[in-house]
């Protein structure tokens, strides 16, 4: 009987150990599955971050516009532009902002050093290239450039990347 109890105790210990081993395999399998899922999640996050970085880089470093080669979206004189802003300034700003505009006007001020020109006392044109020396005040010109907006403080329109239109 003693031997039977000892054998039974050994058998129960053996069964207990077998159960523990099986349970540990289950835990190991769960751990491995969890570990694989963590790796997949980490790779997914890494791929998403790289994709987002590429998209942001492409957005920030877009090709720059060449206004001198673009076709003008609008062609008008300074008084016509002023009339549009007098009628409805927010609508006119939405219409003309960042658009290529062709303006016919008279030069009222000129700064050859800084490549600046004021047209009809109302529009400040900033040129990309130097203004030719033969351009004089009171001369009628046609200028093409990007419209930047209206400055209420100094009561003038602004354009940059200007060039002389043909």
UniProtKB/TrEMBL annotation:
Identify the InterPro entries for this entry: Protein_unknown_function_OB
List residues traversing the bilayer: 43-62
Q: Which domain of life is it from?
A: Bacteria
Keyword annotations from UniProtKB, A to Z: Membrane, Transmembrane, Transmembrane helix
Keyword Transmembrane in annotation: yes
Protein name (Swiss-Prot/TrEMBL): tRNA_anti-like
Q: Which species expresses this protein natively?
A: Flavobacterium pokkalii
